[in-house]
């Protein structure tokens, strides 16, 4: 095997509750146990959400700093830990920025449509993106539609987004109701990318076509994100056992196609060299 790719896991997200699936980790201890199992299964990066005492998604800086440090101390040598800034319709761009500056994670995810809701108002975003680059925070820009890809291209061309130190996440099916992705969603966004060969990107997908979408992404040269944030079902629509079992199913599929997974040491080298 000569083709390598990174597997990222998104184990909990902002909304899923244990009442919906008993294996969704929403507190620090269950999250750490989950991430160790996911690292064993082949994931090199983890996308984490903090939950408050009621189980709701929170961008509270103190809560996130505590969770991030706990997870980093427990599994940081095994996985890159990426902090979310997801707004869930509750948090402003300034609050998202304040969270990242308070925690200073090694990696962060940002939805462009949330942080830059008005394409004509980019001053705050430009300053923040420059701060991320200066502090070598590996940034993932989340894109949901070819129009988001076009916005990314515009912001990068205008110098709002620095040319290095980041990668993209293409999300299949988020704008469907209910969210449900198809392989052609990945293809459409991939076709809109400005530079297929030199722009690192990955993909995730809502719904039980998740593995089909992620296999498509791998064949197009992308990395992949899998996990309960987007989907809790296997391809046959049976409930998955847990996040690690989903990674194992995907990894088995990819290995049959000649792919092997990138270890965390190689991923961190890629991140360092991206700045």
Automatic annotation (TrEMBL):
Keywords: Metal-binding, Transferase, Zinc. It comes from the Bacteria. InterPro entries: Aldolase_TIM, BKACE. Its cofactor is Zn(2+). Coiled coil: none annotated. GO terms for molecular function: 3-keto-5-aminohexanoate cleavage activity; metal ion binding. Pfam families: BKACE. This is 3-keto-5-aminohexanoate cleavage protein.
């Amino acid at each position: 095997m000569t083709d390598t790719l990174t597997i990222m896991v998104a184990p909990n997200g902002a909304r899923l509750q244990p009442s919906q699936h008993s294996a969704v980790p929403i507190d620090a201890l269950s999250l750490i146990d989950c991430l160790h199992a996911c690292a064993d299964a082949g994931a090199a990066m983890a996308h984490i959400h903090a939950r408050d005492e009621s189980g709701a998604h929170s961008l509270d800086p103190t809560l996130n700093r505590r969770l991030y440090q706990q997870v980093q101390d427990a599994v940081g040598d095994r996985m890159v830990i990426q902090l979310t800034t997801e707004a869930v319709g509750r948090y402003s761009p300034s609050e998202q920025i304040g969270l990242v500056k308070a925690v200073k994670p090694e990696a962060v995810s940002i939805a462009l449509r949330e942080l830059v809701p008005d394409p004509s108002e980019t001053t705050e975003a430009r300053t923040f993106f420059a701060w991320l680059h200066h502090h070598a925070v590996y940034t993932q820009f989340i894109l949901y539609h070819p129009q988001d890809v076009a916005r990314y291209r515009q912001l990068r061309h205008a110098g709002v987004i620095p040319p290095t130190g980041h990668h993209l996440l293409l999300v299949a099916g988020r704008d469907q109701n209910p969210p449900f992705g198809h392989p052609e969603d990945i293809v459409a966004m991939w076709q809109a990318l400005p530079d297929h060969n030199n722009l690192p990107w990955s993909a995730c997908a809502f719904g039980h076509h998740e593995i089909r979408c992620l296999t498509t992404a791998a064949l197009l040269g992308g990395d992949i994100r899998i996990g309960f944030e987007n989907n809790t079902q296997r391809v046959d629509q049976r409930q998955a056992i847990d996040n690690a079992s989903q990674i194992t199913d995907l990894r088995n599929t990819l290995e049959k196609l000649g792919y092997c997974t990138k270890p965390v040491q190689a991923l961190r080298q890629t991140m360092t060299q991206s700045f």
